[in-house]
Amino acid sequence: MNRGKVVVRPARPTDAEAIRTIYNHEVLSTTATFDLVPRSLDDQRQWLGARAGAFSAIVAEDPELGEAVGFAALSPYRERAAYRTSVEDSVYVRRDRAGEGIGRLLLEELLDVAADSGFHAVFARIESSGAASRALHERCGFRLVGIEREVGRKFNRWLDVALMQCLLHERQRPTTG
């Protein structure tokens, strides 16, 4: 998918360094992820290698830069068999590209991938003060279904998680044209 200044496409092994750079900034500087230790390039390659088939990763590539400026992925929601039709999403955009609509392009495409893969529900676990991420998910059809109180600790403070859910059969897919 090509919309404006970025192309959304499946992630490739060569995207590992750009994804790692985006993700590690969030690890070190924000509560967007509860990871506390930056990923090595080998860790990132392994993560990307595990994102195949239904649990895929996509990137938003800036053709002028020739590199990913954002990425999104699906992961299993829980290990038990009854949860197999549910997945969890992750969406990250390089901070200097925030506000350009890249997150929405990624999330809309990721939801299409989830629906095309036969999933029923997509969950987002967002640190509760993450207003931009919560608003993005709401614009893409997610609804708040709960708050998990003080489930994480980062930067010497307790963090709550907003649990948001999108039932794919209720989602209105964006129209083109």
Ranges where pLDDT stays below 50 over 5 or more residues in a row are none
Overall SS class? alpha+beta
State the end-to-end CA separation: 14 Å
Radius of gyration: 16 Å
Helix content: 25-40%
Strand content: 25-35%
- Main sheet: which strands, in order across? 1-2-3-4-5-6-8-7
The count of β-strands is 8
How would you sum up this structure, described in words?
Helices cover 27% and strands 34% of the residues. The two termini are 14 Å apart. The chain has helices at residues 16-29, 41-49, 102-116, 131-139; strands spanning 2-3, 6-10, 57-62, 67-76, 86-93, 121-127, 143-154, 157-167. With 177 residues, it is α+β, with helices and mostly antiparallel strands. It is globular, with a radius of gyration of 16 Å.
Secondary structure topology:
Elements: E1 2-3, E2 6-10, H1 16-29, H2 41-49, E3 57-62, E4 67-76, E5 86-93, H3 102-116, E6 121-127, H4 131-139, E7 143-154, E8 157-167
Parallel strand pairs: 5-6
Antiparallel strand pairs: 1-2, 2-3, 3-4, 4-5, 6-8, 7-8
Helix pairs in contact: 1-2
Tag the structure with descriptive keywords.
27% helix, alpha+beta, eight-stranded mixed β-sheet, globular, Aminopeptidase, 4 helices, 177 residues
